[in-house]
Amino acid sequence: MKDLKQRTIRGGIAKVSAQATTFLLRVGSLMVLARLLDPKDFGLVGMVTAAIGMLNLFRDFGLSTAAVQRSAVTDEQISTLFWINMLVGVMLALVSVAIAPLLAAFYHQPSLVWVTSILAAGFVFNAAGVQHSTLLQREMRFTTLSLIDIVSQVVSTAVGIGMALKGYGYWALVAMALLAPLTGTICLWLSTSWIPGKPRGRVGIRSMLSFGGMVTLDGLVMYVAYNLEKVLLGRYWGAAAIGIYGRAYQLSNIPTDNLNSSVGGVAFSALSRLQDEPHRFKRFFLKSYSLVLALTLPITIVCALFAGDAVTVLLGPKWKEAVPIFRLLAPTILCFAMINPFSWLLFSLGLVTRSLKIALVIAPLVISGYLIGLPYGPKGVALGYSVAMTLWILPNIAWCIRGTEISFRDVMLTLVRPLMAGVMATVLPLAMLLSYGRLLSPLARLSLGVTVFGAIYVLILLYVMGQKEFYMDIVRGLKARPSVEAKGLVAV
């Protein structure tokens, strides 16, 4: 695997660039839709997605992760996994249609019957593209995957905004949720030119099914932990409350979601190839972890410092109630950036049982946090959520790395540089904000603050914290030309 480093860097750059584009698209669509639609429209769709989103975890039954983690898979195995995915997708769609009346009764919203039934088709669309996406990941064709992400986002966003302008209300959000997986799956089929064969028995997928089942169960527990508060807010505080909380949550979640999607997919594929080389594995993981932290920390600080301006600029003045919620949720951006990368480590090493045990501890902790805050509404839930996540960071790290080549000291040394750079870079923007911030408009204040903070942060990180060579190495890896041997990197 001589070119693994270059292929990983190129794939990472492609994914980060694509995620930056989709980030702008998501933020842009949010800005437009927040002004065209009411909080209740977002709340109605949010009620459904929070509930049936749990079923979405079963859409591939963890088989894509299992297939990427394996050192080699056959065409017969991939074909059999494809048909298993399709069967699961159809079953999930039918379950969604069956529970639609129950959701409508639970939330006291009759319109949710049709919303749930139509969104059910998304399970089939997703299932049809899972193994095609897996093939591209195994071949480390992340540029192709990135372009597909962008195309699906552009199509769904354009249709959603067009429908909102025509006055279709929450149906615009429904259309966006369906068109993204449909467009993505079509592009995946066209990009791979792979047509699945007939399903076959005894092709050696039992261990993959076991691995995938554990991954799915782990994801299910984590989904409940991170989404039950939306169900409870919708039930006890209504559609408007969950609409406001949901937009604040989305703003805080977009950075980590995009970074985890871009860096995470590339890192997991590369770490899976390095699982039998402990020293290279350790070095690669720590560098990837450092990169995620360096990108996430400034976002966290900006969200905390300029929460009011960010909400006003991105969502509009009618969403001012989301400001304190957004600020209270800001710490979770950093929390997720600090703990999510360890899922790459555990899954690539095949430690899915440990990951599940960790999830079974996180879930009651987080749920207890926002249950305590639930009587106080969205703000209480946001505060409870952030406190619970913050308390869990260090125990989570220690548990994940136990028995691996990576020590707790390694992780702390990786953390300290971006953390110190972020704290030091906060001083001047904060002073500016307190001195004459009120004299500027929200857009000017946000733009100036982000620019000043970003420039100072980069300078401190590169020169004071000595990270210049690390990022120069990434640039050199990007310029390097892959060798011919790299074409045979992954056997399928």
Describe this structure in words.
With 492 residues, the protein is mostly helical. It has one domain (4-481). 82% of the residues lie in helices and 0% in strands. It is built from 20 helices and no strands. The protein has helices spanning 4-36, 39-56, 63-69, 75-107, 112-119, 121-127, 130-138, 142-165, 171-192, 206-237, 239-273, 278-305, 307-314, 322-339, 341-348, 352-373, 377-401, 408-436, 442-464, 468-479. Helix 2 crosses helix 4, helix 12 runs antiparallel to helix 14 and helix 13 crosses helix 19. The longest helix has 35 residues, at 239-273. It starts with a helix and ends in a 13-residue tail after the last helix. Mean pLDDT is 82; it is low at 482-492.
Nutshell version of this structure?
This protein is mainly alpha-helical.
- Unreliable residue runs: 482-492
The averaged pLDDT comes out at 82
Radius of gyration: 22 Å
The proportion of residues forming helix, as a percent range, comes to: over 70%
The run of helices and strands is HHHHHHHHHHHHHHHHHHHH
Distance between the termini: 16 Å
Q: Per the principal axes of the C-alpha atoms, what is the gross shape? A: globular
Give me the count of strands: 0
Output the keywords.
492 residues; mainly alpha; 20 helices; 0% strand; disordered C terminus
